[in-house]
User: Which sequence fits this backbone?
């Protein structure tokens, strides 16, 4: 269980950073003047991929893993065995989830505004159907990731109804 929890934690951290990278990439696709565009030029993307993999490996090897709780059919950092609950806090996971939720929400709100502006003011250089579908797909995937991050931060520190825990894991 320890190794599976560590693998899940590392995978989650890497996946979250991938979603933020995807959101930034979508911003660059729709706005050629976006300030972070330089990240995706030339061979820099390989460094970003290396950063994502390194972050996932760090989460796997050097942070407290979650442990499976049969009562809730879920993974928690605190096994609730009447020990000091501060022993089981994973600060990186909590910080990751908070930051990812903020970044994804911000980037996709920006993208929605930009997409609305482009489709309203410019018919010739507007967004085509394929771009809209890619944007919609990216938004759905990253929104589910943000929702899961919000729920997981909440459920690590507060009593959470089982249905909310289930929603957090399904998303």
Assistant:
């Amino acid at each position: 269980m320890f190794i599976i929890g560590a693998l899940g934690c590392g995978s989650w951290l890497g996946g979250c950073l991938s979603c933020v990278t995807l959101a930034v990439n979508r911003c660059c696709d729709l706005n050629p003047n976006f300030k972070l565009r330089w990240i995706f030029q030339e061979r820099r993307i390989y460094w970003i991929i290396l950063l994502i993999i390194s972050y996932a490996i760090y989460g796997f090897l050097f942070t407290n893993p979650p442990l499976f709780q049969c009562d809730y059919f879920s993974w928690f950092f605190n096994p609730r065995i009447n020990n000091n609950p501060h022993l089981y806090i994973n600060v990186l996971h909590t910080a990751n989830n908070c930051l990812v939720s903020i970044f994804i929400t911000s980037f996709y709100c920006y993208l929605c505004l930009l997409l609305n502006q482009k489709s309203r003011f410019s018919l010739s250089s507007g967004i085509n159907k394929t771009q809209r579908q890619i944007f919609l797909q990216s938004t759905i995937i990253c929104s589910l990731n943000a929702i899961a991050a919000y729920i997981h931060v909440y459920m690590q520190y507060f009593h959470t109804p089982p249905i909310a825990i289930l929603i957090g894991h399904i998303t």
